[in-house]
Design brief:
heterodimer; A: alpha+beta; seven-stranded mixed beta sheet; 21% helix; globular; B: alpha+beta; Beta-Lactamase; 6 domains; eight-stranded mixed β-barrel; seven-stranded antiparallel beta sheet; 33 strands; elongated
Chain lengths: 379, 929
């Protein structure tokens, strides 16, 4: 696997200049960046002409990860040439399907299953129900093949996200990469580092990922009370208090972050399902535990592929973490670097939702507020 | 941009020179630090706020939970593994009330009733090892009986165990009761099923059945006695059918209780269905039995259930318990009710079996009836499912054939339709039909059946059951009667009723469609009466039949030909284009009917007169059209027969005039407006008045005199001539009687005219005889004038009548001689006394007349035959002279006198008329020699 990485600043300055050593030979290019820069067709055209054989995959973000740096409104560019691995990509528009489940199912079935090792998915972050999408994607997957990835972001705006596929950045899209090749080793891990606090509350009224009431009271009003003066910053400030949701019959919990609020409906929309009858608790960031969480995720992904450092790590971290960590956001990327070692190329983005099993043996799920790491290695 | 954090600002002012602080690089660095300070503040604020809110929520939740906890009736302990009580909440309803202060810190053994600590210690050990929850039940002795507990143990952190104890004594007691009740129910259920399968109940022997029931009832409910009682028919008493004494193992029967003796008991029984008297001696429902029954038999509790048959109270089953009083549990009461139901069932079954037997017998009777009756009886759905032998015989098909046959192969469509309606659209109240229907028998013959069909359940399906008899013969007769009602018996043609009916229909068409026209021809056979009278009725009938046949031949099929009666026929010409076509048809008819008929060896010639009326929309009724055709026919007759005449409105007017005249004639007759005028007949030998001709005059009340020429034809036509003629005869006789005393020697006689109609009338002879004898006159004085036409009929009837008249002594004259076609050669055959030569001959004699020779010849011939001759219409001396020369016997005319009333005429009797001038005129007559 050969990798070259560069960054395009908001002022359109490449650092370093492209192309590097790969150019024509690159198979895959990851593009994570600000929505504006991605929708600049000249940027995409330049890249296409420089890397004509590569599949372009990427999305808009709430922050791009390039090495251990976190940027806003720039473009993180990572070109990959595989030595013993082949890939297939596919894309679907969510409007063409009855629901997100059907879209996921269709996408997964539009790539060959024979020899499939792993699926990496990038989805629109606002128009897609991530929980349903994951269920659709995993419905027909062969045993042992799993899905990782994330939902695209739009800074702290929550207005519109785009996904890059086939030389274009579009809203409402879901794209995936299927990896084929016996030599390819995939590792993944996901950890949060948030502490639940206060009482457990019963979800008394919700519809899919839209939450209306907790314990018979307005959920939005509860958030506003806790946020105090920061209530004005909703939905973004809602990320400071993610929900941990526990199904009554299931001891495992998932974390849900807020995507939008609807004042007229008095409702909140989360990045994944918040089913009625489940119990929810507010969560609070524990600073050191966030960084520990990133480290833990890195360790899990590392252990999965053996002793050697992986060649490439794609970090998908939640926008909520970035909002809490603020100036110290890069500490969690550095923590990952500490675990994976200096030889691993890091790329990724701050997202509206992360997709991965918690551990290699667990079921693939949509997460919020986590650092989710997918590592690739052809050694 | 946020201002510099206050803490940082203080630190800068304390530790840095202002100059250093203003350094650009340092300033940017300080700003980053300031931002970090601010962020930390925000984070802390948020954290503090969250802590505060969440603490408040948690303490609220905590107090809520504590309230709930306190409200729970269970007993709680928290113990360590050694059994020391660390926390305690007494259960409000556990029966174990301990003060918290006495319990805390103590070991379980020291404070709990003896059976509990042992169990709890063991259980705590189990929790300690398994780290999982345990639940178990434990009962302990207590002063109020046994107490039952449900105990749950949950492992807590830090080597502690939570013990929750719940008092479940009540639940346990209920369970116990349920278990007992279950045992009883099983016993009862076994008893019921044993009864249900018992032979005794199905043997048909109701006594054995009841014995079995009382035994089972006493054994199952464990009572000393069980008995079954039935109401009598009048419901005034109950009668014991079986009484079982369990201890003695004996059955008895026959006791009777009058309802009136135990009014409250029976009232309660009827209201409650069952009486469960736990203490029968005090229960108001059963105390009526106390002294006579309960005490002597040591009965303490009673359970009596009554049963109904067909909704009526029929009887009661009684269970009686001795010894100490007992409670009747609901299941026992239910069992008693079930026993009562079973008795009702047996009773009903018995009744049903009796009914079934009766039904079978009835079925047998029905089958024999069905197999032997002449009425067809059959049942069918889409096909036949039963037919009796009569049905087979009527249809000619065997049952096997009928069973396979579609109904419409046999029955007509109308009947099939009716049956369909009956089967699919019937209502509960309309479940049968009565209907006539045609069938096509096996031999291809159509027969009529009268059917009564009803819907019944047969073999489990809705089935038509029919009973039918053959009415073919009746139908034929009906058909014949219907034909006869509308047809002429003799010719088989339509009769008046049918003709009027058809004409009525066509008239409607005419009114509806302008283009439609039809015509009515009214035919009358000319001289039919002559043929009938002369050749006999039988031949006349044959002529009518033949006429009918010929009409049928010449007319179209669609035209209606009818015989109205007598010799009148009518033809209805349908859909004609106009009068021209009708006339062509009429001519064709006349041509055909004119051809000779050969009837019984006679060649008969006939013709018809035809009246034609075109039916147009102006007619209101068919009778009017027929009437007009009739009128036109009369016109045709009047015109000379064998021709046709088309009706026009003038004819009708004339006919009406005739009708009017007829009415007036009747009135005139009634009002005696008719008088006889008398015209003298003079003897040309003596010049004396020899006799008078009596001539009728109608003198109206206003004095106007109507000539007989005007009214006699109408009188003839209408038959009024008969009463008028009779009047004339009577008057004549009376007048002769009046004159007789004044002129006893003159032998004055009177001649009167007889019309042919009068002559043919049956009572003529009688009337004359009566008048003559009433007036007591010499019959020879009355002379009758007959017209030639009467004589010329030459029938036997006529000859007989003439002979009779002669026998009466009357003289007979032939009137208007010479005008008819009478053959002189026949005259001698008739008993005639005189001839009256018609005035037309007399008028023409004289110098320029040509009739003198004819008159002379008539006179000579008459004289040769020994007949007298009377000349009519003698008006002048020339007539007189000629007649005298020709030796005519008598003369009559204006020359002598006009007809005058009787009074004036009487004056002529003694008169001798002057015949002188006639003598001087001798030479004017020259006869060829």
């Amino acid at each position: 696997m050969k990798i070259e990485q560069a960054q395009l600043s908001a002022n359109k300055d490449w650092s370093p200049q492209l192309p590097g050593t790969l150019g024509q030979s690159a198979d895959l290019v990851f593009l994570f960046g600000g929505k504006k820069i991605l929708q600049d067709q000249s940027v995409i055209s330049d890249i296409v002409s420089t890397y004509p054989s590569a599949h372009l995959i990427g999305c808009s973000t709430a922050g791009e990860i390039c090495n251990t740096n976190v940027y806003d409104d720039s473009l993180a560019f990572t070109a990959v040439k595989f030595e013993q691995t082949s890939i297939e990509t596919a894309c679907a528009n969510i409007d063409d399907f009855a629901n997100s489940y059907e879209a996921g199912k269709h996408l997964c079935n539009s790539i060959p299953k024979q020899g499939l090792v792993h699926v990496f998915v990038i989805s629109d972050g606002l128009q897609v129900n991530g929980s349903e999408l994951v269920q659709g994607l995993t419905a027909d997957l062969p045993d042992g093949v799993t899905v990782t990835g994330g939902l695209s972001g739009d800074g702290a705006n929550f207005e519109e996200t785009v996904v890059v596929w086939d030389k274009q950045a579009r809203p409402g899209s879901v794209t995936l990469i299927g990896f084929y090749g016996e030599k390819l080793k995939i590792g993944y891990g996901s950890l949060g580092g948030w502490d639940p606090f206060g009482t457990e509350r019963l979800i008394t009224r919700s519809n899919g990922n839209i939450l209306y009431e907790l314990d018979g009271q307005s959920a939005l009003a509860l958030y506003k009370e806790y946020l105090g003066e920061h209530a004005e910053g909703l939905p973004a400030t809602g990320l400071l208090f993610p929900l941990t949701v526990r199904m009554p019959e299931d001891s495992t919990s998932v974390v849900r972050t807020i995507l939008s609020v609807d004042e007229s409906e008095n409702s909140m929309t989360f990045a994944g399902d918040v089913p009625e009858g489940a119990y929810a608790k507010l969560m609070k960031a524990n600073f050191s535990r966030l960084v520990d969480g990133a480290m833990g995720a890195a360790q899990t992904s590392y252990q999965a592929i053996g002793s050697a450092s992986p060649e490439l790590a794609i970090l998908v971290s939640c926008v909520g973490r970035k909002m809490v960590l603020k100036q110290r956001v890069e500490e969690e990327v550095e923590a990952v670097r500490e675990v994976l070692g200096d030889s691993t190329i890091l790329t990724g983005f701050y997202s509206y939702g992360e997709i991965s099993p918690f551990t290699p043996s667990a079921k693939c799920e949509l997460h919020n507020q986590t650092m989710t790491i997918t590592t690739l290695s052809e050694h | 941009m946020e201002s510099l954090h206050r803490l940082l600002a203080r630190q800068i002012s304390r530790h840095l020179d202002q100059q250093e602080a203003d350094n650009e690089e340092l300033s940017a660095f300080l700003r980053a630090i300031s931002d970090a300070y601010h962020e930390a503040d925000q984070d802390r604020n948020m954290l503090e706020r969250s802590l505060e809110l969440s603490s408040k929520e948690l303490s609220q939740a905590n107090s809520d939970l504590r309230a709930i906890f306190e409200a729970i009736p269970d007993l709680f302990f928290r113990t360590d593994y050694q059994g020391h009580i660390l926390e305690y909440k007494s259960g409000s309803e556990t029966g174990l009330k301990l003060s918290a202060t006495k319990v805390l810190g103590k070991k379980l053994d020291n404070i709990l009733p003896v059976e509990l600590p042992e169990m709890l210690t063991t259980a705590i050990k189990r929790v300690r090892t398994s780290k999982s929850r345990i639940s178990l039940e434990q009962s302990i002795k207590h002063e109020t009986g046994r107490l039952h507990y449900e105990v749950r143990l949950l492992p807590l952190l830090e080597d502690q165990v939570l013990v929750i104890m719940r008092d479940i004594t009540e639940r346990k007691n209920v369970e116990e009761k349920i278990a007992q009740s279950k045992i009883r129910l099983e016993k009862q259920s076994r008893a019921l099923s044993e009864l249900a399968t018992s032979n005794a109940l199905h043997s048909g022997n109701i006594k054995e059945a009841f014995k079995k029931i009382t035994e089972v009832a006493a054994n199952t409910l464990d009572t000393s006695f069980a008995s079954i009682w039935l109401y009598n028919k009048t419901h005034t008493a109950i009668h014991c059918l079986d009484h079982y004494d369990k201890a003695a193992g004996k059955h008895s029967e026959g006791l009777e209780l009058k309802i009136e003796d135990f009014p409250f008991y029976f009232k309660s029984l009827a209201e409650d269905r069952a009486i469960a008297a736990h203490d029968a001696r005090t229960d108001p429902r059963t105390t009526e039995f106390l002294d006579n029954y309960l005490i002597p038999n040591n009965i303490t509790s009673m359970l009596d259930a009554c049963f109904r048959v067909h909704g009526q109270y029929a009887g009661v089953i009684c269970h009686e318990h001795t010894g100490s009083a007992r409670e009747w549990t609901p299941d026992e009461q239910q069992f008693a009710a079930s026993m009562a139901d079973m008795i009702a069932l047996i009773h009903e079954t018995q009744e049903r079996e009796n009914a079934q037997r009766a039904l079978l017998e009835s079925e047998d009777r029905f089958r024999i009836l069905a197999e032997t009756t002449d009425s067809a009886i059959f049942a069918f759905r889409d096909k036949f499912v039963y037919v009796n032998p009569a049905m087979e015989s009527i249809t000619g098909y065997a049952y096997n054939e009928l069973r396979e046959m579609d109904l419409d192969k046999l029955f007509d469509a109308a009947f099939i339709q009716q049956i369909y309606s009956l089967r699919h659209e019937h209502t509960d109240s309309e479940k049968h039909i009565r209907q006539e229907a045609k069938i096509l028998t096996q031999s291809g013959e159509i027969r009529w059946l009268f059917l009564a069909v009803g819907l019944v359940q047969f073999e489990g399906s809705l089935t038509c059951l029919a009973n039918a008899f053959d009415i073919t013969e009746r139908k034929k007769i009906e058909e014949q009667l219907r034909f006869q009602a509308f047809h002429d018996e003799l010719t088989g043609l339509a009769n008046r009723a049918l003709f009027i009916d058809r004409l009525g229909h066509r008239l409607v068409n005419t009114k509806r469609q302008n283009s439609y026209q039809c015509a009515v021809l009214f035919l009358d056979i000319d001289r039919f009466k002559v043929i009938n009278d002369s050749l006999g009725h039988a031949l006349g009938d044959e002529l009518l039949i033949e006429t009918g046949k010929r009409l049928k031949l010449v007319m179209r099929q669609i035209d209606t030909i009818a015989r109205l009666g007598g010799d009148e026929f009518t033809v209805l010409l349908e859909d004609v284009t106009g009068l021209e076509e009708v006339l062509i048809v009429s001519e064709r008819i006349q041509r055909w009917l004119k051809k000779p008929y050969l009837l019984r060896g006679h060649e008969v010639y006939s013709s018809v007169s035809i009246g034609i009326a075109i039916a147009d929309a102006s007619y209101q009724s068919p009778d009017q059209i027929l009437r007009d055709a009739d009128i036109a026919m009369y016109r045709a007759k009047a015109k000379g027969k064998a021709c046709h005449e088309v009706f026009n409105p003038q004819m009708h007017a004339k006919a009406q005039k005739v009708l009017h005249l007829e009415t007036n004639l009747r009135r005139a007759l009634k009002n005696k407006e008719f008088q006889l005028y008398y015209q003298p007949i003079v003897s040309l030998k003596t010049g004396k008045t020899s006799s008078f001709e009596g001539l009728i005059r109608w003198v109206k009340p206003d004095g106007e005199i109507v000539s007989p020429y005007e009214f006699i034809p109408i009188a003839e036509e209408t038959g009024m001539i008969i009463p008028i003629g009779k009047l004339v005869i009577t008057e004549a006789c009376e007048q002769l009687k009046k004159w007789r005393p004044g002129y006893p020697d003159d032998n004055i006689s009177l001649t009167i005219n007889l019309s042919s109609r009068q002559f043919e009338h049956d009572v003529l002879i009688e009337d004359i005889q009566e008048s003559i004898s009433s007036a007591n006159i010499d019959p020879e004085l009355l002379k009758l004038e007959l017209t030639e036409s009467i004589i010329m009929k030459n029938s036997n009837m006529m000859l007989d009548k003439l002979a009779e008249l002669k026998a009466l002594g009357l003289k007979l004259l032939i009137d208007d001689f010479g005008t008819g076609y009478s053959s002189l050669s026949y005259l001698h055959q008739f008993p005639i006394d005189a001839l009256k030569i018609d005035r037309s001959f007399i008028n023409n004699i004289g110098p320029n007349g040509e009739n003198a020779e004819i008159v002379n010849a008539i006179i000579s011939l008459a004289h040769n035959l020994g007949l007298k001759v009377i000349a009519e219409g003698v008006e002048n001396t020339i007539h007189l002279q000629y007649l005298m020369e020709m030796k005519c016997d008598y003369a009559q005319g204006y020359y002598f006198a006009r007809p005058v009333p009787a009074k004036e005429a009487e004056q002529f009797i003694p008169v001798t008329w002057s015949l002188e001038k006639t003598k001087s005129a001798t030479s004017i007559i020259k006869f060829p020699s």
